[in-house]
Design a protein that fits this description.
globular; 87 residues; 3 helices; two-stranded antiparallel ribbon
Length: 87
C-alpha cells in the first residue's frame, strides 16, 4: 500500500497561489478550443476539488500535484483520487 504525504512534492509549505490561475482558466474566450471544457463543467469540477479533503494550499491536488484550475479545465484530465475519482 502506498503512503501519501500531506506535503507538496515540489514546494515548500509556505508557498501560496493567488486566484489568477482560476481567473485565467475560466476565461470564456478559450472555451472554443477543443482542449477545454465549458465553464459550467469547469465550475462543477472546481467545486468538487474545493470541497475535497485532498486539496492542498487551496489550489493543488494532493494526488497529482497539479493546480486544480488547470486540471479541471482540460477535457483530457480527470480526478486522480485513488479508487474514488470525483469527476
Amino acid at each position: 500500500m502506498m503512503k501519501y504525504s500531506n506535503e507538496c512534492k515540489g514546494c515548500q509549505r509556505n508557498v501560496s497561489v493567488t486566484d489568477e490561475p482560476l481567473i485565467y482558466y475560466s476565461d470564456s474566450s478559450i472555451e472554443e478550443d477543443d482542449e477545454f471544457v465549458h465553464e459550467e463543467l469547469y465550475s462543477k469540477r472546481v467545486q468538487l476539488c474545493l470541497d475535497c479533503t485532498s486539496l492542498q494550499y487551496g489550489s493543488t491536488c494532493k494526488y497529482s500535484g497539479v493546480l486544480i484550475s488547470y486540471k479541471a479545465k482540460r477535457k483530457n484530465k480527470s480526478c486522480p483520487m485513488p479508487g474514488a475519482a470525483k469527476w
